[in-house]
Amino acid sequence: MSQWFEDFKTYLPKYLPAEAQANLFAELSQFPNNIDRRLYTLRLLNEMNLFQGDGLASLWVADLPNERIGRTRVMILSNTCDIAPDNKRLLGPRILYCPIISFPKYQNLLNSEADLPVDFSLTDHLEAIRKQHNSSMFYLPKNEKLGEEGIAVLDRINNCDAQAVDLSELVKTRLFTLSDYGFYLFLYKLSLHLTRIREGIARN
């Protein structure tokens, strides 16, 4: 194993066994040319627990200041421990999530948009999303339940009471669970979107 991998291991999840860490690194080393179904795992699909990064078929979403509320596909942003059923809180746990929009519909919307900047390249924009270069969007490859390519829109965060999700129905309503590779990539994108330690602003 090369020295640079030994250095990189510092930033890999410590709970993974050596073989899983090596597999995760192998996937990360191929980024962004392996953003496909390898982002998902089948191992946890039958678990009756919500996991951070899970896709769900339907939860309530608002788009304020529009007062209309509807149900749509969502991706869970809350960390797994916070929304675990045995994590009791005085106020009760809330689930943070963002909507998943259709990649083809987003593409069609931009195709019909007349007000785009002169130097805007739709091809380059869509390719940037697919390669996870857009910090406010997490690209989701097509799988059986998702049915099409999707985009989790990270700057459209909603929340609801954790009890709104029927854990006994998760096997039916869960669209995907992220693999080690997908989860690592998701956490990186989420932290990049929400936090910038080097924001370049003097605050004192």
Report on the architecture of this protein.
27% of the residues lie in helices and 22% in strands. With 204 residues, the chain is α+β, with helices and mostly antiparallel strands. The protein has one domain: Roll (SH3 type barrels). Strands 1, 2, 3, 4, 5, 6 and 7 form a seven-stranded antiparallel sheet that branches. Strand 1 and strand 2 form a beta hairpin. The model has no long low-confidence stretch (mean pLDDT 85).
List the helices and strands and how they pair.
Elements: H1 3-8, H2 18-29, E1 55-63, E2 66-76, E3 94-102, H3 103-111, H4 122-130, E4 137-140, E5 150-153, E6 158-161, H5 170-173, E7 174-176, H6 180-194
Antiparallel strand pairs: 1-2, 1-7, 2-3, 3-5, 3-6, 4-5
Distance between the termini: 45 Å
- What is the number of helical segments per DSSP (H or I, 4+ residues)? 6
Percent of residues in β-strands: 15-25%
- The percent range for helix content is 25-40%
CATH topology-level fold name: SH3 type barrels
Rg over C-alpha atoms, rounded to the nearest angstrom? 18 Å
Assembly level: single chain
Low-confidence stretches: none
The CATH architecture = Roll
Counted up, domains total: 1
Mean pLDDT: 85
Query: Based on helices, strands and strand pairing, what is the structural class?
Result: alpha+beta
Order of helices and strands: HHEEEHHEEEHEH
- What does the largest sheet look like? 7 strands, antiparallel
The number of distinct β-strands equals 7
